[in-house]
Amino acid sequence: MKSQLLVLALLAILMAIASAKKVRYDNYKVFKIRTQNLEQQKWIENLASGSKNFNLWHSGKGEVHLMVNPQKLIFLQNYTRSFNMPLDVMVSNVQSLIDAEQTSKAADDLNDFGWTRYYPLSAIETFLDDILAKYPEVTSHIDIGTSFEGRKIRGIKISYKEGNPGIFIESNIHAREWITSATATWLINELLTSEDANVRKLAENHDWYIVPVLNVDGFVYSHETDRMWRKTRQPVEGSNCIGADANRNYNSHWLESGGASTNPCDETYGGAQPFSESEVKGLADYVTSIKERINIFLAFHSYSQFLLTPYGWTKDPPTNFEDLMAVAKAYSDAVLTLPYKTSYTYGTTADLLYFASGAANDWAYSEQDIQLSYTIEFRDTGRYGFILPPIQILPHCEDTLAGLLALVEKADELGYLQLKYT
Description:
By secondary structure, this protein is an alpha/beta fold. Helix content is 38%, strand content 17%.
C-alpha cells in the first residue's frame, strides 16, 4: 500500500513539473471583432503582428477573431471603440478549454487508439505501425524526410490495385490544429475497415497518400509546451523568434502580394527562403516525385468551415474556377445533409479570407499541375476555434467522409480522375 502511495505521489510531482513547463492561457479571451472594411481588418491583424499579447485566430470578410492577454483587455476595448468596431466574446477563458480538452480522455480509449481524445505524435506513429503490420498487402510506408529537430515525417499509402487515380492529403502543417491529424487517422482506419459499399468503392478505386502530421516538431511542442503553437521549430538567424509558417513556405509566389510576413516573430512568417523548412521541402520533393499519380490534393486545416481553392496570392480566378466551385459545392452540400448541419462556405483563399502566398494548395495547383487542389478548414466557426472538444471528433469525421464521397464523385463526373500515367 505504501509503495502504491509513493508511486502516486511521484506521478503527481512529475505531472506538476510537466504542467509548470507549459504555457498557460488563464483568462485569455477570444473576441470576434466586426470590421467594416479591409483597412479596419488590417488594423486588427497588425495588433497581432509579432505580439505576445494578441494572437490572430481567424481573419475573414467582416470579422476578425483575436485572442487577448487579460492585461491588454482594456486597451483592446478602447482601441476598437475608437474606430467603431463592435466586439463580442467568443471564448471567455482559453485555458478552461485547454483544461477540458486534456481531461476528457475516455477511459475505454486510453490503451487503444481511437477518436474520443487527441493523441501525441508517439501514439500516432504507433497507430501507423499497427496499420502497416495489419494490412501489409494494401498499405505501404511513406517517408517524407526528417524535421529540423530530427523527427521522421511519416505517411501511409493505401492502394488496393494498380491503375488507380491518386488523392493526396497533407495534415497538421499548423501545429495547434489537432482536429486535422485526428481526422486523417480516422480516415485511414475507415478506408481500411468500413463495410459501407460507398466507402469501399472510395477506398479501393483510388490510391490514398496521407500524411497525418507534417509539422512534427511543432505538433510535439503544442502537446508538451504551448497548446497554441502554430509554426515550425527551426530557429531564425538573427532573431530570437522560432519557426516559420510552413503554409507560407512553398515555392509558389512566395511572399507575393503581402500574402506572408517577413517578420520572424509573426505567425505568418514565410521563412528565410522558399522551402527553408525541411518539413515543407520533404513533402514537396515527395509530391513532385509522384505528381503524375495525384489527381486531387487536399490540405487539412482548422478552423472556419471553408473550402478554399487557388489562388491565395491573387484575386484572379484559376482557369478551371467553375469546376473547382462545382466540386467544392458537392462537398458542402453533402455535409449539410447530415444531422449535424455543418455549413461549409467555398471560394478562393484571397476572396474568402486574405492574401496567402506560398501555400500548399497553390503550389500543388500551379507548380505540380494538380487541378483539384483545396485547403479544407474544418470545424468550427469560432465557438471553440483551434481547441475543438474531443466529443466533436467523430461527428466531424463523419462530416468529412460524407464530403469526400461527394467531392470525389463530382470530380469523376467532371473528368478529373482520368489517369495521368500509364
